[in-house]
Structures are given as C-alpha cells and as structure tokens.
Amino acid sequence: MITVVTGNKNKAAEVAAFFAGIAEVTHVDFTCIEPQADTVEEIARAKAEQAYAALNVPLIVDDTGLFIDALSGFPGPYAAYVQDTIRNAGVLRLMNGVADRRARFATAVAYADESGVRVFSGTVEGEITTAERGTEGFGYDPIFAVGVSTLAEMSMEEKNSLSHRARALAAFREWYITSR
C-alpha cells in the first residue's frame, strides 16, 4: 500500500491512476509546513520527514516547481504560492509580450518509511501559452504546453505518460517494485 500525503485531491487521483494494478493507494489530507528551499528535492524531503514523524506510516509526498526561463526561473519552488496568489492569469500577465516562453516543470517525489527518505525526480520541458486552454488537470496545466497541447488538453492517461510528476513517479514505481 502507498499512502499519498497531500491536501490536493487531484494529485492523489493522479498517483492512484499511475499505480492502478500495481499497488493500492490511500490518500491522507495532511498539511505539511513547507520549508523555504531552493530545490523541489529539498522541500519534498523535508515534507516527507515531517509527515512520517506525524503519521508513522510509509508514505509519499511531492513538491513541484515551475521554472520559466524569461522570468529567471520564477516562480521556481514557490509555484504553489504563486498559483494561490496570482493564479494563471497573473502568470500570463507577467509573460505578456515576452517572446521566450520556454519553461519546465520539476517534481520531486519523496518516499519515507522506517529506513529513511528516498527522493525521485522528474522534469518536463514545455512553454507557457498566451491563454488558458483545456479543462482537464489542475494548477498550471491550462497554460503549460508540451508540443501543441497544454497539459489541461490531455487526458489523464496522456498526461501521465509524459508529465514531470509521471517521470518522478515512474522512478519511484521502478524502485518500489524492485525493492519489495
């Protein structure tokens, strides 16, 4: 069994879909105090340590950052705060008139159990669109395009075949299967 610790039910659903037929996934809505750090790996590790100390069950947490080249990597590991405050519309305003729209998502999945914490990372390159497109997904998905489609224009299966979170989860899944 894999316990996913997140306040975001959409993330929990993505993880459950990713592990369908491999492992049972449970969701615990537990809010970690998010440390300020420069990398998503550092943040995920700290959150996993915190959640494991509180819940004492093997679990995973993740942290995701959005790094926009033209904005010197902003919002980076503070993507959740930026999403909560200025949302997609604010990011699009910041990018108004900017030609270089390259960006990348980076996710770190941290697994904690009695033996410690292991961190698995994944990234996906893309670009910030000029307008929101699509109705699937959540967060920045409507403004982040990989190829011709935004993540919000993709089905969960399509998104889970190429996203940053899918790549980090694939690394975790490979380790999880072989370590059991």
TrEMBL record:
Its EC number is 3.6.1.66. Homodimer. It comes from Methanorbis furvi. It catalyses: XTP + H2O = XMP + diphosphate + H(+); ITP + H2O = IMP + diphosphate + H(+); dITP + H2O = dIMP + diphosphate + H(+). Belongs to the HAM1 NTPase family. This is dITP/XTP pyrophosphatase. Substrate binds at T6, G7, N8, K9, N10, K11, T64, F138, G139, Y140, D141, K159, H164, R165. Its cofactor is Mg(2+). The active site is at D63. The keyword Endoplasmic reticulum does not apply. Pyrophosphatase that catalyzes the hydrolysis of nucleoside triphosphates to their monophosphate derivatives, with a high preference for the non-canonical purine nucleotides XTP (xanthosine triphosphate), dITP (deoxyinosine triphosphate) and ITP. Seems to function as a house-cleaning enzyme that removes non-canonical purine nucleotides from the nucleotide pool, thus preventing their incorporation into DNA/RNA and avoiding chromosomal lesions.
